[in-house]
Amino acid sequence: MTTILGLSGSLRRASFNSGLLRAARDVAPEGVRIVVGDISAVPLYNGDEEAAHGMPPAVAALNAHLAEADGLLLVTPEYNNGIPGVFKNAIDWMSRGEGLRLFAGKPVAVIGASPGGFGTTQAQTHWWPVLRTLRTRPWWDGRLMVSRAGGLFDADGTLTDDKTRGQLAEFVAGFAAGLRKDRP
Ligand code: FNR
């Protein structure tokens, strides 16, 4: 079994990106499991809190999933042409202490959805220096930028567009195949 930890960077109930992640989980081929992580309980990073109490339980839970995962899938919204603060905050927390070791050498793929015409191109690009600093292994072989998302998801944020679902299935299968190839 190939296991991928998937994280959506939106806290919004009907989020396009959370819907895209759920759809990715549903189209994963046989032998591939996407575990949907939840960043909603991750507090704002505060070094004083960290010094006093260590890693918050919500972050420890995400890191436990990351430790088990063969790869990481980031499903990123785009805010002001960059990474949404809540998403960066979650990854920053996860990278603290022993968490940093979990990212080293981990294959990471980034996708995203936005209602605009560029489909999170800028936010995806902004992830690369972060992922390089964390010494991950970015997966470059596929690209998925879901634009005009308003017409592709329903009011609950569930993906309803078959073409996008097909592109997503191809992306997930490609990433998973890359993970299997990488395995010692
Ligand atoms: C946005 N949005 C946005 N979209 C985009 O394509 N490029 C951008 O630069 C921005 N900037 C931006 C800033 C802020 C503060 C907000 C709140 C929103 C729109 C954004 O893509 C939209 O709200 C999506 O629905 C967010 O993703 P989820 O929550 O649907 O997953």
Helices and strands in order:
Elements: E1 2-8, H1 16-27, E2 32-36, H2 47-53, H3 57-68, E3 71-75, H4 85-94, H5 99-103, E4 107-113, H6 121-133, E5 137-138, E6 145-146, H7 162-182
Parallel strand pairs: 1-2, 1-3, 3-4, 4-5, 4-6
Helix pairs in contact: 1-7
The protein binds ligand FNR.
Ligand FNR is lined by residues 10, 12, 15-17, 77-81, 114-116, 118.
Domain NADPH-dependent FMN reductase-like: 3-147
Protein name: NADPH-dependent FMN reductase
Keywords: Oxidoreductase
Percentage of helical residues? Answer: 40-55%
Please tell me the CATH architecture by its name: 3-Layer(aba) Sandwich
CATH class: Alpha Beta
CATH superfamily: Flavodoxin domain
User: Termini, distance in Å?
Assistant: 14 Å
* Structural class determined from secondary elements: alpha/beta
The coarse silhouette is globular
Q: Report the count of strand segments.
A: 6
Give the SSE string.
EHEHHEHHEHEEH
* Proportion of residues in extended strands: 15-25%
Give the number of domains.
1
Number of helices: 7
CATH fold naming: Rossmann fold
**Poorly predicted segments:** none
Note the main sheet: 6 strands, parallel
